[in-house]
Write a structure and sequence with these properties.
- The complex is a heterodimer of chains A (115) and B (120).
- Chain A is mainly beta and 115 residues long.
- In chain A, 0% of the residues lie in helices and 56% in strands.
- In chain A, strands 2, 4, 5, 6, 9, 10 and 11 form a seven-stranded mixed sheet that branches.
- In chain A, β7 and β8 form a beta hairpin.
- By secondary structure, chain B is mainly beta.
- Chain B has no helices and twelve strands.
- In chain B, strands 2, 5, 6, 10, 11 and 12 form a six-stranded mixed sheet that branches. In chain B, strands 3-9-8-7 form a four-stranded antiparallel sheet, with no helix packed on it. A two-stranded antiparallel sheet of chain B has the order 1-4.
- The radius of gyration of chain B is 14 Å and the shape is globular.
- Classes of the chains: A mainly beta (115), B mainly beta (120).
- At the A-B interface, β4, β5, β9 and β10 of A face β6 and β10 of B.
């Protein structure tokens, strides 16, 4: 099966610091990766779509300077939350679309808490 | 714009019984995919079932089956012989069909979800 990993699974940081979350497709190549944010008891909200080697496409209302996305290779994408504030506390989920069959697989998520 | 509507915020079912979760969607496309994802308390999103719009036959995966009504833009999920492990949030989702298998930016549009409780 196709596995997507995320690291870290949980992170607590102080307000004003930056946090990097990694998303890896472990056994397949992913030309497209997606980053979502999910608030408690709500649906997934797409933040941005990234393609390997090119700039991410951000959804309306998502600050690209706040949420930096780098899709450096066919198996790795990173989301950096810059100058984090308590309102950035949330559950962040990445997803990778497999090149071979266009199926989309999800990572286990990262819980970010900003104090 | 595509929209996905799940009209049941919460549902409950007795263990071993059958439950149906509703989903409707709106699109002007003729070729697309529909999905049901399960999100248990661990919050890992798990694909339950996928339906290709051009296929008339309803998709089935063991105890999970769908009733796909393309004209009505309806895509319900039936869970038979419900088990305690089926308790989760269920999301219906839609995406356009990519033109080829070389990768696509096509986004998943999710419904708001239905929280399923399974009573022992």
């Amino acid at each position: 099966g196709a596995v997507v990993s995320q690291h870290p699974s949980r992170v607590i940081c102080k307000s004003g610091t930056s946090v990097k979350i990694e998303c890896r497709s472990l056994d397949f190549q992913a030309t497209t990766m997606f980053w979502y944010r999910q608030f408690p008891k709500q649906s997934l909200m797409l933040m941005a779509t990234s393609n390997e080697g090119s700039k991410a496409t951000y959804e309306q209302g998502v600050e690209k300077d706040k949420f930096l996305i780098n899709h450096a290779s066919l198996t790795l994408s990173t989301l950096t939350v810059t100058s984090a504030h308590p309102e950035d506390s949330s559950f962040y989920i990445c997803s990778a679309r497999a090149r071979r069959d266009n199926k989309q697989f999800f990572g286990p998520g990262t819980r970010l808490t900003v104090l | 714009a595509q929209t996905v509507t799940q009209s049941q915020p919460e549902m409950s079912v007795q263990e071993a019984e059958t439950v149906t979760l509703s989903c409707t969607y709106d699109t002007s496309e003729s070729d697309y995919y529909l999905f049901w994802y399960k999100q248990p308390p661990s919050r890992q999103m798990i694909l339950v079932i996928r339906q290709e719009a051009y296929k008339q036959q309803n998709a089935t995966e063991n105890r999970f089956s769908v009733n796909f009504q393309k004209a009505a833009k309806s895509f319900s999920l039936k869970i038979s012989d419900s088990q305690l492990g089926d308790a989760a949030m269920y999301f219906c989702a839609y995406t356009k069909r990519a033109p080829n298998s070389g990768g696509s930016n096509y986004k998943l549009t999710f419904g708001k979800g239905t929280l399923l409780t399974v009573n022992p």
